[in-house]
Amino acid sequence: MRKYKLKLYVTGKTLKSERALANLMRICDEDLDGTYEIVTIDLLEHPELAEDEKIIALPVVIKELPRPIRRVIGDLSDTESVLLGLDLEAIDPEPPGEDLEPVDSEPAGEERSQK
Amino acid sequence: MNTEKRPAGIEKLPTGIPGFDHIAFGGLPKGRTTLVSGTAGSGKTVLACQFLAEGITGSNQNGVMVTFEESPADIRTNMLGFGWDIQKWEDEGKWAFVDGTRELGEEEILTGEYDLGALLVRVEHAVRKVNASRVSADSLGAFFSEYTDSTIVRGELHRVASVLKAIGVTVVMTAERSQEYGEIARYGVEEFVADNVIILRNVQEGAKRRRTMEILKFRGTPHDKGEHPFSIVSNGGIVILPRSTPLEQSASNVRVTLGNQQLDEMCGGGIFRGSVVLVSGATGTGKTLAAIEFVAGGVANGERSILFDFEESREQLFRNAIGWNIDLPQMERAGKLLVVCASPEAAGVEDHLVETRRKIEDFKPDRVAVDCLSALERVATEKGVREFAIAMTAFIKQLQITGLFTTTTAKLFGGASTAEANIFTVTDAIILLRYVEMLGAIRRGVTVMKMRGSAHDREIREFTIDDRGMHIGKPFREVSGILTGNPVRVAASEIDRVEEMFKDKHPA
Hints:
The structure holds 2 protein chains of 2 kinds. Chain A is of the alpha+beta class.
């Protein structure tokens, strides 16, 4: 079982940040193979963390574990680009032939075979 | 009649950037955002950093640098050369970076709606952390190119600017422009920071580049108009050279010597302290001698003097002076004189001006001679040399220093070139040295053409140079056309007749 650690940075409770959190939880529930932990950080309360992480655009989700660290900006409404952007593995890879495989999916394919 | 109540004037924040507060009539509009726009390499980042550096060193005001282009590490290194130890200031809690740069290869994926709200959070946090009064953001163009949706970027910058205004910090934001003369900045930046705009230029003129700064507008508060040349110097950064002469100089009635008694007499008893004299002449007429006699005359009266020479080396100068019985090295050893010889080609004209000003500030002389301004034409345009003369005049007058500049006429015989004529208007007195060809021999003539605020000799007198310097003799009574280069002998009776013409005639 893999363990995912995701941090979602927002400023206050805005429509966008609520939507981002909902989208992220849905993606993790539906598409992730393994356990996950989501930490929501309000930058209005911890402005110094924005400087540490060099964040400008919000909302942003940063995948800290497993490495490499990846980040995706926005309300996370497009599941596919979130998975791709965070380098997450979906439980069910798309059936071959239905869509063109992304070019950079080869290492992912390897890992998939281990399952 | 305007009966409207005047709102309280906009306060100015003295920046401490040399020359800037003079052309800005006091400094940047306090608590406002000023846009600094310029092409690549026009000095935007230096200005942005200097604004903060001068605040820390000069007025105990801390600063925040928001950087979108160069990384903080690069800025720390690059600015060391100007004498600004940013790392030290960061450790002392006087300077904070907001790092908006992105490391190479680090990609962020955008999906769905987003905003740039964290920028404001970070800037606000940094301002509070170091208790900043000044903020610089460099450069907006890099920020815009980072995020494709320029509406969001513009909105965020507007938010940052208005929050900083509410806090009361003074802000400098830099932006790129694609050409020296044209739209203010790319991405329509001026739409949200339109109140105050400064343009930096790095214009090609002939084979030379010239840096200028222009305050395009300060909403609701006055400033000097036009382009002011500036220079970027190591250990100091930007130095602006105002074109305008401060008019509040007090005019002195005290006369001082030109270092030659006969020349003093021609000027009505010497020149006024704090005035500037121009000596114009063809090569070999005795300009360098005039400059050397001028500084030596000062030293003899206990005045400290500097001689800047753009034509001759120290050795040449000392040897020539010895030939006229003036011992310059001895005066230097006594600490009364400083001789500075510089090759015009060694730097741009703005750099020369900065360097001469530094020397003057350090040595604190009572008189300054510059020999010869025309040599600077080798590295500058006519306009550039004129600006040097104007800026130099303004500077030394402010300090109540007496000055003597020399210029070379292009022709051996006859009048001044237009370049010289441009400088003529700047100085208080003009002395012409001219060759006079008469009866198969070349003689020298001297005349005082202009002497502000004083009567002076109007004759053209012959002078000679020997091992004791310049000796002025009798007027060329029977010659006319010396200044135009076509001397013609005039009969004595004709001269008497002309003099009669201008005499008051008593009615019989």
